[in-house]
Design goal:
Pfam families: Cu-oxidase, Cu-oxidase_2, Cu-oxidase_3
Subcellular location: Secreted, Extracellular space, Apoplast
InterPro entries: Cu-oxidase-like_N, Cu-oxidase_2nd, Cu-oxidase_C, Cu-oxidase_fam, Cu_oxidase_CS, Cu_oxidase_Cu_BS, Cupredoxin, CuRO_1_LCC
CATH class of the largest domain: Mainly Beta
Number of domains: 3
Strand order of the largest sheet: 12-11-14-19-16-17
Number of helices: 4
Largest sheet: 6 strands, mixed
Number of strands: 35
Protein name: Laccase
Structural class: mainly beta
Oligomer: single chain
GO biological process, one term: lignin catabolic process
Length: about 575
Amino acid sequence: MDSPHFPSVLRVLLFGFWVLPLFPEFVVEYLNVTRLCHTRNILSVNGKFPGPRLVAREGDRVVVKVVNHVSNNVTIHWHGIRQITSGWADGPAYVTQCPIQTNQSYTYNFTIVGQRGTLLWHAHISWLRATIYGPIIILPKHNESYPFQKPYKEIPILFGEWFNVDPEAVISQALQTGGGPNVSDAYTINGLPGPLYNCSSKDTYTLKVKPGKTYLLRLINAALNEELFFSIANHTLTVVEADAKYTKPFDTDTLLIAPGQTTNVLLKTKPYFPNASYQMAARPYFTGRGTFDNSTTAGILVYTQPLHHSSLKNLTLLQPTLPPINATNFVANFTAKFRSLANAKFPVSVPQKVDRKFFFTVGLGTNPCPKNTTCQGPSNSTKFAASVNNISFALPSSISIMQAYYSGQANGVFKTDFPATPLNPFNYTGTPPNNTMVTNDTKLVVLKFNTSVEVVLQDTSILGAESHPLHLHGYDFFIVGQGFGNYDPNNDPAKFNLVDPVERNTAGVPAGGWIAFRFKADNPGVWFMHCHLDVHTSWGLRMAWLVLDGAGPNQKLQPPPSDLPKC
């Protein structure tokens, strides 16, 4: 029998093999990889790029020992996993744990509760997730089926970003100069940039399909800094799940997927062998003022050939049409199509009443340049910064926030007076204020257990209106409303969807607009919330929630594991 602490034995798929009994190791090690004629010694897990698949079922207990064999400190975040009372396994460096140092290890131990679908795992310190990432595939419980047609085959599609140089050097230089970081050299599909880049035609992902079949594509955006449009020429995709939550199915030719987001889509292949192959392409959505990697990664969808057909080389290659780079209206219309499945088998419990409301501005700002130096920020006397309610969040370095909280050592590590509304209101999407300086601090919001929370995230026009994909650790939240311009607390709530709003862990705050979301604070611990564009996270667009223990035995943060890393 399973005890409540040791549910069914975990299954994990590594390198295409089922491994039982299951306590897999993720060994962080160097790997030589060549892309675009540049060979780099990248950081990898188990010598794979992208990293190995983690496959489990809903209800499984997952135990992964991470061993660090590189010179960088490292952590792994299981992005989107709720981590009910197991916040020590969440992974953000200096938030729930100190990082794993060279030649040290840490065992992540958690149970998958009420989730099924696609998520991702990635490093969660500095920019190491540029190459340390992989898929999490959560299958339904035994004898349970998908709420859609059973696919013939399931295929993970991971989008990434490739740098010809070490990404750590890129962000290190940017933080020093105060300027925008150098952009990536390519986007990738399953680690491959594709034929539209120089010296890359051999490094093209090919998806082979049979006519008249339904495929489940598990789309994951693991790119560092860009939201991406994605389309397959002459094929319609049916969205059935987002961030490991089933959605009402809808058809689309083009998707938008932000870093940290996952989307499961059904691809129905043509009923006959076509005399063509089809490009699948991804390129960025960008509205900001800075520089960005304005390039396109492409793979090829190929129908497996009947024997009597001539060679594939004679086939026409059809190309998809992607929206313009700054197609904000397309993005708004697309995101509005997402609705929770919300049926009898998969009901939703949207908080109808709210205990605490928060209004957070998210966007860019500035820090002063150190004395007697010149910077490369918006002016030569300022550095780029980013903030939530004008607070640029500073991480501690000698202890993690959750360790400080749990051991009663909060004094000097963090404060608990994060403002519920901006301290200096202004016309958020209008003419920006003259003073764009941020405050640098480590402040948290404290929530009592089971508090119903509503958060409005408002983009600002400071240094350019921009879309911000915000990720909340430890929770899924219901996106009850979104709009352009300044949020109107008197009129906008009347339009909220409290019946079947989509439930996600990462959601884009529209460029020059706002989103409203709700969640119930039923998971004790310290939970990071940050922009999933890593450049903005590095600049301080991040904060944390401290959810206190409840009264019941299953409503308390578990004690820290004995091998929790030390700083």
